[in-house]
Design goal:
Might take part in the signal recognition particle (SRP) pathway. This is inferred from the conservation of its genetic proximity to ftsY/ffh. May be a regulatory protein. Belongs to the UPF0122 family. It comes from Caldisalinibacter kiritimatiensis. This is UPF0122 protein L21TH_0984. InterPro entries: RNA_pol_sigma_r3/r4-like, UPF0122, UPF0122_fam_protein, WH-like_DNA-bd_sf. The chain has 126 residues and is mainly alpha-helical. The protein folds into 2 domains: 68 residues, Winged helix-like DNA-binding domain superfamily/Winged helix DNA-binding domain (Arc Repressor Mutant, subunit A), CATH 1.10.10; 52 residues. 86% of the residues lie in helices and 0% in strands. The protein is built from 6 helices and no strands. Helix 1 packs antiparallel against helix 2, helix 2 crosses helix 4 and helix 5 packs antiparallel against helix 6. The chain is elongated and about 70 Å long.
């Protein structure tokens, strides 16, 4: 269940605005605020079964959007690539230390700052 909550959370971050208002609210209450189906039903003044149906339809739509658009997969791939770049920067910096090259170290520091900025902006801009 925990893994599904993380997966739905990512999908919701990317595609949540594409859901209907009711679907958006139900997913947010259930996954983000950890409310039970009964608690959500009470808040929305619908049946527990109604909440369950809305939740399942919303989950299916989120998975469908990802299947068609693939934004979460692209995001995760880019995140992996950026982390891989950081590993290579570390190797270059270690070699620069051995050679005593301040110029290389300065350039790798600038590259590191850019890469970290990309990672941070991707986290904020999901």
């Amino acid at each position: 269940m925990f893994e599904k909550a993380i997966e739905i959370g990512m999908l919701f971050d990317f595609y949540g605005k594409l859901l209907s208002n009711k679907q958006h609210n139900v997913v947010e209450f259930y996954y983000m605020h950890d409310l039970s189906l009964s608690e959500i039903a009470e808040q929305l003044d619908i049946s527990r079964q109604g909440v369950y149906d809305i939740l399942k339809r919303a989950e299916n739509r989120l998975y469908m959007y990802e299947e068609q658009l693939g934004l979460v997969e692209k995001f995760n791939l880019n995140k992996y690539k950026v982390k891989h770049i950081l590993k290579h920067i570390n190797v270059i910096e270690n070699q620069a230390d051995k050679l005593g090259s301040d110029d290389i170290k300065d350039n790798t520091k600038k590259i590191r700052e850019i890469v970290l900025d990309i990672l941070e902006s991707n986290q904020e801009g999901k």
